[in-house]
Amino acid sequence: MPVSGKADAAVSLLGVSRTYGHGPAAVRAVDRVDLEFAHGAWTAVMGPSGSGKSTLLHCAAGLERVDRGRVLLGGTDITDLPDAELTALRRTRIGFVFQSFNLIGSLTAEQNVALPLRLAGRRPAPERIARALADVGLSERARHRPREMSGGQQQRVAIARAMVTGPEVLFADEPTGALDTSAARAVLDLMRAMVDAGQSIVMVTHDPAAAARADTTVFLRDGRVVDRLSGADARTIAARLVTLEG
Ligand code: ADP
Ligand code: MG
After folding, report:
1. pLDDT band for position 5 (cuts 50, 70, 90)
2. What is the pLDDT of residues 154-171, one digit of tens each?
3. Are the C-beta atoms of 189 and 132 separated by less than 8 Å?
4. 53 lines ligand 1 (CB under 6 A)
5. Residues of the chain with pLDDT > 70: what percent?
6. Among 116, 144, 207, 220, whose CB has the most other CB atoms within 10 angstroms?
7. What structural domains and CATH numbers belong to the chain?
8. Tell me, what's the pLDDT at 122?
């Protein structure tokens, strides 16, 4: 019988490990992690550089295979899905945002936002694209290309692109890492509003102020979950991080 996560979890990791390389050079980037990301909540993931944050996020989002344990998205065990099914699932049920935005430079904002629908073989309804851009406050930038927008605007386009399919979970790997303070705040305000409207978000960050906007912060060290704080302020989160980095 398949193992199952908690019913209210957006994503469950059950005994998940991910190792890179073989033999004496092997690195266990994620080490037997049991973790549930609550539905409708914003979870931040923090830890020293190299502690496995990105690997954990990629495994949870189905971007990378695990070599031990199970990954459940909602009620679906995605661990052993064939590649084609996993790709289809990623395109429809998961959104992913990167530090470096990863927009396509030759496409306008609205073309970038339409891309996931096109890749899923759907004809994007113009009002759906317009709505996704309006939701991130960029209606007037629809025909602009990435180089004609600020970093903060590009990241908001990337969020619109990630959200246009209505994903169950939005994953973000250091989404404010390349932004100045005010652009970062705008992105975090947007994410907060999305969560308050019911979106589940899992976000890796280095910034205690960003983690303080989330509901819960999970701390990693050497590929393992070592602590969890809920409702903590930036100062408390920063102090916890310092003890891990020592
Ligand atoms: P973080 O995001 O917390 O900085 P990562 O998940 O990127 O950590 O990396 C965790 C560990 O796994 C590090 O030791 C890193 O060098 C290693 N690692 C990550 N990706 C790869 C890869 N593709 N090949 C080999 N080692 C990797
Ligand atoms: Mg990383």
Report:
1. low
2. 999 999 999 999 999 999
3. no
4. yes
5. 97
6. 220
7. 40-52+82-245 (3.40.50.300)
8. 86
Predicted confidence at residue 3, as pLDDT, reads 56
* CA-proximal residue: ligand 1, atom 17 (nearest): 29
Separation CA 42–CA 31 (nearest Å): 23
- Residue 88's contacts (CB-CB under 8 Å, 6 or more residues apart) are 120
Of 17, 22, 27, 58, best ligand 1 pocket probe by most atoms within 8 Å of the beta carbon: 27
Does residue 221 line the site of ligand 1, with CB under 6 A?
no
Check the CA dihedral 198-221-50-72 and report its sign: negative
Per-residue pLDDT averaged across 8-33, rounded?
A: 95
Q: How far is CA 47 from the centre of its chain?
A: 16
Integer Cα distance of 130 and 139 in angstroms: 7
